[in-house]
Amino acid sequence: MSEAEIDLAAPELTPDDFLYIDDPYFSRDNVAIVTGAASGIGRATAVSLAANGLTVVGADIDEDGLEATGDRIQSFDADGAFHGVETDLTDDDDVEAVVEAAAEEGSLRFVANIAGMQHIASIAEFPMEKYDLLLDIMLRSPFKMAQAAMPHIEDTDDGVGAIANMSSVHGHYATKDKPAYITAKHGLTGLTRAIAAEGEGTLRGFSVSVGYVLTPLMLNQIEDTAEERGLSKREVIEDVMLGQARTKEMMTPAEVANLFIFGFSSHAKHLSGGDLLFDGGYVNTYE
């Protein structure tokens, strides 16, 4: 297949894509915060939580994207509700404000820290301003979100809830030219375990780790990696991204969102401090 024939695109979300769980905590009275809700995995997770009946507060710096997420939820005639809040996750006051806004909508029980970014460069050439921005969004912000949200979850009638962090196969191993991303994802493992340690068993922390997902972030990454390594886009996809995987296809945002649905549900009450690793064989299989 020629380079011109590569036409990847993030798939459109449909109601049939999602896992639906009849759960006592999945109701409009209970609230979930989703960061990065304007696109990709964040949008899919916001849609899936609303489709399962929860009130969802989406946090993102992209106001237009949040509106599009709300429109998609409305088009599904979801049982839940959606409120988009324009949020700069690098601003502590904004993070605290979105948590307070969520608490005003009902009982805050769930947080999905999904917002992320990527920058492709070697350690020697990595711009420190990009390193600081990436770590602020992907590690410091989840810590601040947990700090602000945990008291609200603990103050519910039974203290039941969960904070979930979007990790990655890069939270389990390292590849070259992604040093800041790898640092952030490994840090999220520690944060997840710290949340679980302080959660008293009812407030859980868990993470979700996947391989490559068809999102706008990933599509941009293909071109960046091709340029950084002097490869074609096809070589990046087949050799770099899917070379080690046993499942030779990328995940969809909805498939990842379903892992958050399960992790938040009562079926996962023993998932605390652990990681849902759905990676197609990247981490634990070798040539």
UniProtKB/TrEMBL annotation:
The keyword Transmembrane helix does not apply. Keywords: Plasmid. InterPro entries: NAD(P)-bd_dom_sf (IPR036291), SDR (IPR050259), SDR_fam (IPR002347). Gene3D superfamilies: NAD(P)-binding Rossmann-like Domain. It holds the Pfam family adh_short_C2. Signal peptide: none annotated. Belongs to the short-chain dehydrogenases/reductases (SDR) family. This is D-beta-hydroxybutyrate dehydrogenase.
